[in-house]
Amino acid sequence: MGRKIIVCDVKECMGCRICDYICSAVSEGVINPRKSRIRTIRIHPTFDLAVSCRKCEEPKCVLVCPHQAISQDKRTGLITIDEKKCDCCGWCIEKCPIGAIILHLEDKTAKVCDFCQEYKKPQCVEYCPKEALKYLDISRVEKDSFQRMLQDLIECKLKLEESVLKAGKSG
């Protein structure tokens, strides 16, 4: 098996966040989108996108971790976080270009999508009502569309950070 990632068809995604709910239920045992390893983001009033780990070729999250708590499987690209080593410094969260790593406030560790390794495929993909999520080998994802999607996500992340900073200054 090659590197497989979750890909969202923005034409089909309606922003229902069922993927967020399913993920938190499967990974944490509670329905709480804040604990989900996939994020549904609204980039524009008509543009929703579910985002999860992209299994980067050279993941910055692995490189910047000062405690070597993050590793990547060379064959599958799966990123794992050793909760015993993680001190929740947040460097990995800061360096992830698409915001796929979350901070788990109760466990005080970083978390990332494990692609539901205990199942045949990620459960967010299984339960997406519009079938907007696909679990595809990265080689099947067109390089241009993948790069375009990453660029859109990076721009969205920057706009979100900017709006958060503006909100903080006015509040």
Describe this structure in words.
- With 171 residues, the protein is an alpha+beta fold.
- The chain has helices at 18-28, 60-64, 91-95, 123-127, 143-170, and strands at 4-8, 39-44, 47-51, 70-72, 79-81, 102-104, 109-111, 133-137.
- The protein is built from five helices and eight strands.
- The strands form four sheets. The chain has a two-stranded antiparallel sheet. It has a two-stranded antiparallel sheet with strand order 2-3. The chain has a two-stranded antiparallel ribbon with strand order 4-5.
- The chain is globular.
SSE order and pairing:
Elements: E1 4-8, H1 18-28, E2 39-44, E3 47-51, H2 60-64, E4 70-72, E5 79-81, H3 91-95, E6 102-104, E7 109-111, H4 123-127, E8 133-137, H5 143-170
Antiparallel strand pairs: 1-8, 2-3, 4-5, 6-7
Summarize the structure.
A two-stranded antiparallel sheet has the order 1-8. Strands 2-3 form a two-stranded antiparallel ribbon.
Bin the helical content. 25-40%
Query: How would a crystallographer describe the biggest sheet?
Result: 2 strands, antiparallel
- Determine Rg (CA atoms, Å): 16 Å
Return the average pLDDT rounded to an integer: 88
Low-confidence stretches: none
> What is the chain-wise order of helices and strands?
EHEEHEEHEEHEH
Q: Calculate the terminal CA-CA distance, rounded to whole Å.
A: 49 Å
How many strand segments?
Answer: 8
What is the overall shape? Answer: globular
Oligomer description = single chain
β-sheet strand percentage = 15-25%
